[in-house]
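Q: My labmate handed me this sequence with no annotations at all. I'd like to see what the chain might look like in three dimensions before we decide whether it's worth expressing. Could you predict it?
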Amino acid sequence: MILLWRRRRLVNILIPALLFFLGLYLGARLADYQPLASMVGRTRKLLPIYSVYTTEKKVALSFDATWGAEYTPKLLTTLKQHNVKTTFFLTNIWLKKYPEVAKQIAAAGHEIGLHSATHPHFTALSEAEMEKELQENSRMVREITGYKAELFRPPFGDYNDTVIRTAERLGYRVIQWDVDSLDWQEHMTAGAILNRVLKNIKPGSIVLFHNNGRYTADVLSPLLEKLKADGYQVVPVGDLIIKGDYYIDHAGVQHPGR
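A: Here is what I predict for the chain of 258 residues:
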């Protein structure tokens, strides 16, 4: 009797312990799958794509357009000289003021993404308001440039689960960045911007610039020359990201599906 009781007690201890460690293992293996994260309740926050895991030396440069177009012609000329295509995220605020510049961006073969209609903090909006922002932005981009956008960058980089789910439900990939040039800050010189980007860039990086940053156009040519010398290929965001099966890890890095 004593032996039987001990065996039962051992089984009662071992089975829960095995189930516990199996749960930990499966959780570690599957936590990075975003569909699972949404199904099991608050496993973790949904994330946009900050960068892409790749063994190729490919990077993407992106330009947010919310104010001004003074330096944009030089930007476009430099990109053409280097035979480089990039991604411009446009707002309706900007499109209304500079429709001809938007047409030049599209005519030059650059990718166009959405950046909202009025540049609000999306996390402060209702789902219906988010939809309106995206739909109006998409409509204006299409009307002015003829381009059907597939990417969306939230204003201020501000997002939560609802922002991502809403954008994805409407058919847009949500794009962030892993290298911020800080070209919008007044104290940043051309040299400081260039050094910051070169210091942080790596294969799969998405770099954030602004089309009308004071020194952005000046930085672009030496940046492209250095990247080429280092063996990098610069592509639009849409050509960098993974289109098929993928998952996004806890740091926002997009990986091929497992």
